[in-house]
Design goal:
Nucleotidyltransferase, domain 5, about 45% helix, flat, alpha/beta, 13 helices
């Protein structure tokens, strides 16, 4: 074999990550140049990373594979975004994925960079059997409180799907008035590939909305921080006062308006005492996985629970309002 051009090998098999032919790899191993050894090290490192990513994805598919083992062929996943920001809507994504769906890099949306989330969202939308994103607007959040608004967004997303699922995998919640078998998974966007993918759709759609709202309400920095309670946002809130999309039920907004905080209350039927928590890997119809702050300390649900106002006595008879903005395929 003629002497290899190492720059071409690097471009094809390291930068583009193409599979290296056996003959080319053998020639590299026989090449005494330090550059050839460095390329082999890069290729071996990529192989180790690929094996590790494959194992991670198999682990993330254990809930989906359990459903397949029970004969469930059309299962949907639901994930949310935007519970803790002070302005703007709550979002939820729902999707149905093909059996065997795997896209390297899918993870909890909060662990991904904005650019990586956008790349993955494009792939997810392209490969999903059906997907939808739904919103609940600030005035609805103030009327319901943010916890119930998050559930409403999830219900709207499910109802917007073009295919009716047989089962729902849900990130730490349960939709009591949706007559579909469900499994709720604490930290679902870390433990289920499908929920992580749905959360990526919700997060990217909500971020895009906040960029639009930044142009409509300049000065708050919505395009940068997406409404989350960071220093820049607090300073703008004190200087400019709340704008129409700020959630009046959230304490920082109420303080800026000179209003007292709302009384907090937790939805008793959804939050179990700590001693009752026993998360399990086993899937069963409407599986009970209790939710409290300890279980979701890394998720937006902590902020959601902290922002709860007093709950109405009855909500189970309410029918969901139609989604103001949703997309389905």
């Amino acid at each position: 074999m003629p002497r290899l051009r190492l720059s071409e090998v690097r471009r094809r098999y390291v930068e583009r990550a193409r599979p290296i032919p056996t003959a080319v790899e053998a020639a590299l191993r026989a090449d005494p140049r330090p550059g050839a050894r460095a390329l082999l090290d890069c290729i071996e490192r990529r192989r180790r990373e690929n094996r590790s990513e494959g194992q991670r994805l198999r682990h993330l598919l254990r809930f989906e594979n359990e459903l397949l083992g029970r004969g469930v062929r059309v299962g949907a996943a639901i994930g949310g975004a935007g519970m803790s920001p002070l302005p703007g809507p709550v979002a939820a994504g729902a999707l149905l994925l093909e059996v065997g769906f795997r896209v390297p890099g899918i993870d909890d949306s909060k662990k991904l960079t904005p650019a990586r989330r956008e790349e993955l969202a494009m792939v997810i939308r392209e490969k999903a059997i059906a997907w939808a994103v739904a919103f609940v607007e600030p005035e609805e959040i103030d009327a319901l409180n943010v916890y119930w608004a998050g559930l409403l967004a999830m219900r709207r997303a499910v109802e917007a799907l073009s295919v009716v699922p047989e089962h729902l995998l849900i990130d730490a919640r349960r939709l009591r008035d949706v007559p579909i078998e469900q499994t709720r998974i604490v930290k679902g966007d870390e433990r289920s590939l499908s929920i992580a993918a749905a959360s990526i759709l919700a997060k990217t759609a909500r971020d895009a909305r906040m960029v639009e709202l930044d142009r409509k309400y300049p000065g708050y920095g919505f395009g940068r921080h997406k409404g989350y309670p960071v220093r820049e946002h607090y300073e703008a809130l004190l200087e400019l006062g709340p704008c129409p999309i700020h959630r009046r039920s959230f304490d920082p907004v109420r303080r800026a308006l000179g209003l007292p905080p709302l009384k907090e209350a937790a939805p008793a039927e959804e939050i179990a005492p700590a001693e009752e928590i026993a998360p399990t890997e086993e899937i069963a119809p409407t599986e009970e996985i209790a939710l409290n702050a300890e279980d979701v300390e890394d998720s937006e649900d902590v902020a959601a629970l902290a922002a709860l106002e007093a709950l109405p006595e009855e909500r189970s008879s309410e029918r969901p309002r139609r989604a103001r903005k949703s997309t389905s395929h």
